[in-house]
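Late entry, written up from scratch paper. The run itself happened at the end of the previous shift, but nothing got recorded in the book at the time, so transcribing now.
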Amino acid sequence: MSIDWSNLNYVAIIIGGLLYMIYGTIYYSVLLGNKKEKQTEGPLKYIYSVIIAFISSILMAILINATGAETLFQGAIIGFIIGVIIKMVYVKNSLFGLISKKSTIIAICDHLVIFTLLGALHGWLS
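Output as recorded:
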C-alpha cells in the first residue's frame, strides 16, 4: 500500500493542526490552571506540541483517506477508535504505576476528544 499524497486535503491538515493546538491550550489551561509542578522549563515542550499537533493531523488525514471515510460521522468514528487505542495504552501504564490515576484520566479524556474532533474534521473536509 502506498500513500497517494495528492489525495490528502492539505487545508484540513493545517486546520486540524491548529484545532489540536487550540483545543490543547484550552483543555490544559482549564484543567491545570497555573500549576507548574513537574513541567519542563523552556520552549521545547511548546515546539514539540506544535510538531505533534501537525503530525497527528497528517496521520489522521492518511487514515481517513485510506479508509474511504467521507462524512463527519465516519471520520468521528475513526478518530474515536484512535482515541480508544491511545486510552488503552494510558490505562496499561497506569496499572503499572507509571502515571497517576488523575493524569491518566486527564490524558484519556484529552485524546478521546481531540482525535474524535480531528477525525470528524478530516471526514467532513474529505
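DSSP finds four helices and no strands in the chain.
(Scratch paper discarded after transcription.)
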